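Hi everyone, sorry if this is the wrong subforum. Our group has a chain we'd like a structural model of before ordering constructs, and none of us has done structure prediction before. Sequence below.
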Amino acid sequence: MLTQLVRPLLAVGLLVTALLFASPSVAVEPVVDTAPTYEDLIARLDALPSSLEAVARYDAAVARADQARALPNPSIAYDMENVYGTGPYNGIGNAETTLSINQPLELFGQRSARVQAARSDADAAGLRREQVRWQVAAQVALVYAEAEAAARRHELAAEALSLAEQDARGVAAMVEQGREATLRDIQAQSEVASARAAVDEASALRDAAFARLSAIALLDRPVQAIGASLLDRAPGTPQAGDADPLAVQVAQAELVTAGRLVTVERRRARPDVNASLGMRRYRDTDDEAFTVGIELTVPLFDRNRGGIRAAYAEERAAEARLIAQQQEARAGRFAAVAALAASGSRTRAADNGVAAAEEAYRLSRIGFEAGRISQLELRSTRAALIASRNAAVDARIARVRAEIDLARLEGRAPFGDSR
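Answer:
Right subforum, don't worry. Here is the predicted structure as tokens:
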């Protein structure tokens, strides 16, 4: 009795399993690698190669500043006098030996000038590290937005192909009914072929953009889709702009460093002083005595005039870079704020244009199917719809670029808080 019940149940189970695997509605969907969110990529900035390089350069500058504080090493000397001569000085029996320690003395402010210059260079390296960080953030935002835009353009191209095929079917039906000439059918098929080529091109551009995003984000394999949208995100209100941009701060720090290097070169022309302290032993009397000495270089031939002139020239160059950077930052901020405001208006206008183009195409399609509108007018409204949707994507890319430019000047990540 139990066997009679088990066999039908087993057969039913096998049948259901076969139907599940055979049914296309329950087929396993391919796994799509979705890109990390923009916030996740920004959180990983410190792990990107450019950021690591900037951090390493800053660490090197800090290490040089620490090294600049080190005192010069002393030297030990051992001298023997009155040796290998004649008479009683034959050999080393009556030699006088001296053991001394020599210590260079960094007088005339030489050490302090060196330490201050190294410390200033480390400060400039710290600002450059922050500058590189936000430059990398800007690059990540741009590549992310371009990948999303490429994906949207591919979707728009696929939709344009679908609309062209739909219109071509309508034209073919009218040709069969004798309401349109055969030439219209040929033109519609040509438009379908052109739209299909546009889809292939958009697919290649999308894959390339995804590959760039995967490369800059150090992902294991290329992404295939964008999750959270960055194009639809509205940027925040620009900051007051009272603080100097990072680029100006870097130029100011470099000018300070150049000025301190002038001091280093000027004090390098001053005499070097060495002090010595030793113990001398007289072999013939077996007596001992201290020796004290001081050595002073005479800046007679080398006064480091070339080094001083070069340091002054570097200082003038740093001052010129600061002035240029201030002017560029002022103009760049004005342009970025204006571009951001204009891109917002452009985006709203593009969205309104898309809504109007969609309604126009809907009405023209109804009129075409009713025979009141020609194929040329239908094609025109369809082309306007495709152009308006692409214009909306372009407007959003322009808004992202304006936000990136402003964020770079303000020292922050695009669409994020200030540092």
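For your construct planning: The first helix runs from residue 2 to 22. Residues 276 and 293 are 5 Å apart (CA to CA).
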